[in-house]
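User: Before I run my own analysis I want an independent prediction to cross-check against. Here's the chain; please return only the structure tokens and, at the end, one sentence I can use as a sanity check.
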Amino acid sequence: MRCERVWRNARLATLAPSRPGIGIIDNGVIAANGGNIIFAGAAQDAPTFQAAERIDCEGRWITPGLIDCHTHLVYAGNRAAEFEQRLNGASYEEIARAGGGISATVRQTRAATRQGLVTQALPRLDAMMAEGVSTVEIKSGYGLRLKDEIKQLTAARDLEGRRAVKICTTFLGAHTLPPESAGDPDGYVDEVCHVMIPRIAKADLAEAVDVFCETIGFSRAQSARVLAAAAKTGLAVKMHAEQLSNSGGAALAAESGALSADHLEYVDESGAAAMAAAGTVAVLLPGAFYFLRETKVPPVAMLRSCGVKIAVASDCNPGTSPLTSPLLVMNMAATLFRLTVEECLAGMTREAARALGHLAELGSLEAGKRCDLAIWNVNQLSELVYNMGLNPLHARVWRGL
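Assistant: Structure tokens:
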């Protein structure tokens, strides 16, 4: 069988749903052609390949390329001053209500050019890629008016042309109330639903629509309107839900057929059961939990018992999770939320792909999927979750290259 590349003498964590656990193969082979995997399995089961290039992995571990399924990577400026305020006792809600928080980043992002946003985002993206990330979701939500939301989304798409990475864009116009709409949240939601979503869908600038359903964001009823408007255009939906309170966001996400509900510190059992029935993925974000010094831990045991699929992500953003290390995300998910090593690895590969609606092409080492690989200098997979500040990536492969 002809192919472009073969990786041999490797230990594979395939993450294939058809295999037990995380699908470990001790003496594994991966073959790729045209950017896709054509074989991933045990050496004794591999056909004879006529390959243009053969790579001896010398016993290293190979996992799917990591996937960060929840980021706000494209923005201008930073909020280091707010970080100091929180150290001095101010809460996230107090800062937001005083004109800081998301609104502060909105002002800086509106003032930036599209190229300026790209320039500022590239170092953050490079840091993620250096730790094995091959796919990144990027939300808008720092423009809060049509021209600036479009600017953010096009800047995110520009990154894909600058780096060997897949970018999935999400429209988050319903992130917070812009200053010009103060006192009129329903009027702003009308604009999001009837102007922004149709224009962005027509321009094919986003794969999905997100909404921040929270006491400092939008009500359940307002969020439902946003999700319904997105569904009319054929865009997928997802939600920021139950981060600071239980507002019924998880149940709404399930009712709306959302790909994911993210944060979920305050989700209750009925919300979790609804998510499981709908196939809505729980995306846990330990970076924000840590950075905000929260104490309400997501009910992981309940999510497990209900059968909810669990992904983990960085939530990279300037105010509550300025985090660009997927390896540290996994460590935090284990230490703070008590996820297992297998759950952490699946959460940043297979389940992250599921949360983006791309499980058919990404997230596991299987024939027919994209050949996005992370090759690691570790003796055991637990080292990827155990270490803090050590990057054991040997090589990152994207589309077979």
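Sanity check: The mean pLDDT is 96.
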